[in-house]
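Lecture notes, unit on binding sites. The following record was shown on slide 14. It pairs a sequence with 1,3-dihydroxyacetonephosphate.
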Amino acid sequence: MNQDSILQEILSLKKEKNAVILAHYYQVPQVQDVADHVGDSFALSKLAAELPEPLIVFCGVSFMAETAKILSPEKTVLLPVAEAGCPMADMVTAKDVLALREKHPEAAVVSYVNSSTEVKALSDICCTSANAVKVIRSLHHKQIIFLPDENLGSYAAELIPEKEFILFKGYCPIHEEVMEIDVKLARDENPDALFVVHPECRPEVRHRADFIGSTGQMIRYINESNHHSFIVGTESGILHPLMTGNPGKKIVSLTPNFICPNMKKTRLEHVRDSLQQLKVQIELEADLMEKARLPLMRMLEVS
Ligand code: 13P
Ligand code: SF4
């Protein structure tokens, strides 16, 4: 079956089942194009909570679909590919959080949404890359346990020197792989370009950037800029909305293999099957969801 017929099937199933399709900017172009809303993890979690449709197909990775379910427990949330996970989210466990809390009883636990529901349930507040600094500044605590992403935590720590940070040593294997030398090479090849980067990159990469932000913030920065040339330091899926939205600008990826294999697992066929068979439904224990909702709601309140 060709892609056009699958697309037609998706559109009619979506109407029939009163569903909404959400996709992250790292999804393949065809999936971004069939989605009703494409966004960064913050925008998508807000949308999941606000949208009226009772059925959400979440094209992203599992922590994102789980966040949508926690914020909208009455809705059915589908993750088209069950195996689409996030290795960074798996790096920290509930046991790690409990141990850190015991060691630093005065500290607030701030968890990046790239974490499990169990970890969220033990946190004081959640954040995304779009609002980490704002979220941490909103806290009265002097000590902050930040997890799991050490790079995002060190970015926030640099901007909030008045607080003391205890950083968990988690990382995104995709962003961590990018080195300072890659920035030098890309800048040598594109001497007039502005360099925009995601805060999941290493500090030495981040320190060479003209702009640091979440995927949504990077897109807004480039869309609104009068500059003509950009080097983009995050997963390659972001090039699709950037190139479509900025036909006159030169936009290149920092490295050729900036690819998150988990984000690339979802294809149009999976979206169709997911709608057709109502799978894979996110199911979380009610008690746990209740506990994890609080830190997420706090994040939404201060953002
Ligand atoms: P955003 O918060 O920018 O959407 O990023 C999510 C993510 O997983 C980055 O690797
Ligand atoms: Fe996780 Fe990194 Fe993929 Fe984002 S890019 S979903 S942090 S593995």
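Take-home: DSSP finds 15 helices and twelve strands in the chain.
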